[in-house]
Amino acid sequence: MTMLVAMVTPFHTDGSLDAEGAQTLATYLIENQACDGLVLNGTTGEAPTTSDEEKETLIRAVAEAVGGRATIIAGAGSFDTRHAVELARTAEKAGAEGLLVVTPYYSRPTQEGIRYHITTIVSAITTKAPGTVAVKALLNDRGLPAGPVRLPLVPADTDLLNHLRQACE
């Protein structure tokens, strides 16, 4: 089993990015916590509040510290497809081996809009990433569904819900 950890982004007390602290944390996670890889610039890594420059600096710093010993996945999420493409290209150049991408959920795109968003991002990096595996094939190889999944409707356990409510009071 592969373990990827969503890494927090360290900052100095003045609010600036602590790249050296990020290297120390990344090294610790890989060497002492049996992590196979790190996910940077996701919501756990303060992506909504860091600049594009800080995101790139973080990826470069972590890649320098643990590159080759751990997989680096970088957030390239944006509701703006063009911005997501730029984040993806920058992440790839900075040393990320994979991307964490979000769909533009606030604008509620159609399925075709979501497909356009994702394929545009993938197309921007695929030619530069030899050995890229199609997502569908990867999911199928791992025995996972490669499309929408309909979960069965499970009736609520009212006793359990009442216990939870009481515990929260």
How does this structure look, described?
Belongs to the DapA family. Keywords: Lyase, Schiff base. This is 4-hydroxy-tetrahydrodipicolinate synthase. By secondary structure, this protein is of the alpha/beta class. It has one domain (4-168): Alpha-Beta Barrel (TIM Barrel), CATH 3.20.20. It has 6 helices and 4 strands, in the order E-H-E-H-E-H-E-H-H-H. It has a 4-stranded parallel sheet with strand order 1-2-3-4. Helix 1 crosses helix 2. The longest helix has 16 residues, at 111-126. The model is unreliable at 128-134 (pLDDT under 50).
User: Superfamily at the CATH H level?
Assistant: Aldolase class I
Number of helices: 6
Give the ordered list of helices and strands.
EHEHEHEHHH
The backbone outline, from C-alpha atoms, is: globular
- Secondary-structure-based class equals alpha/beta
Query: Could you say what the CATH topology is called?
Result: TIM Barrel
CATH level-two architecture: Alpha-Beta Barrel
Please give the order of strands in the largest beta sheet.
1-2-3-4
Structure summary, number of beta strands:
4
Major pleated sheet: 4 strands, parallel
Radius of gyration: 19 Å
GO molecular function: 4-hydroxy-tetrahydrodipicolinate synthase activity
Protein name: 4-hydroxy-tetrahydrodipicolinate synthase
Organism: Acrocarpospora macrocephala
Family: Belongs to the DapA family.
